[in-house]
Amino acid sequence: MSYKYFCMIKAELSFDVSLNIDHHNCLFISTLHNLTLHKKCGEIKGDITKEDKTSVYTISQSEIDENVRGIGLGYKFYIETIKKCFGLGGMEFRSSTSLNEMSIGVWESIVKNNYNASFVQRKRDPYYNVRVRDKLII
């Protein structure tokens, strides 16, 4: 008679998001770091423009390492990036106008879970956006 024993091992991973701003070229780069494995595993790049005297951050390119896809990390990475941009005075954060299936999924989750996020339908180049929340009056 033979016996097989199975043991489940759980690993906890830790991540951090850093945001770098190039004021001279009006660009931003947000990087997702896996602190446990000491490696970069995602990046969001984009442009910073002024509209009505406010800063608008617009994604031009984003990528997440395929080893960490499908676990909700993309959503958390975008949310942390948006918070950091708003913390630096940004008033609006926009998706790229060219979206793939994965980025649409992330943006749909952002819209579903945040009242200040929406899909902006235009004839050409629709996009998703998040605006700084209005102050709540109680």
Question: Which percent range fits the helix content?
Answer: 10-25%
Q: Which whole number gives the mean pLDDT? A: 89
The major β-sheet equals: 7 strands, mixed
Unreliable stretches (pLDDT < 50, length at least 5) are none
The SSE string, one letter per element, is: EEEEHEHEE
Write a brief caption for the model.
The chain has 138 residues and is α+β, with helices and mostly antiparallel strands. It is built from two helices and seven strands, in the order E-E-E-E-H-E-H-E-E.
Task: Tell me what the structure shows.
The protein has 138 residues and is α+β, with helices and mostly antiparallel strands. It contains two helices and seven strands, in the order E-E-E-E-H-E-H-E-E. It has helices at residues 73-87, 101-113, and strands at 15-22, 27-34, 39-51, 54-64, 90-94, 117-120, 127-131. Helix 1 (73-87) crosses helix 2. The radius of gyration is 18 Å and the shape is elongated.
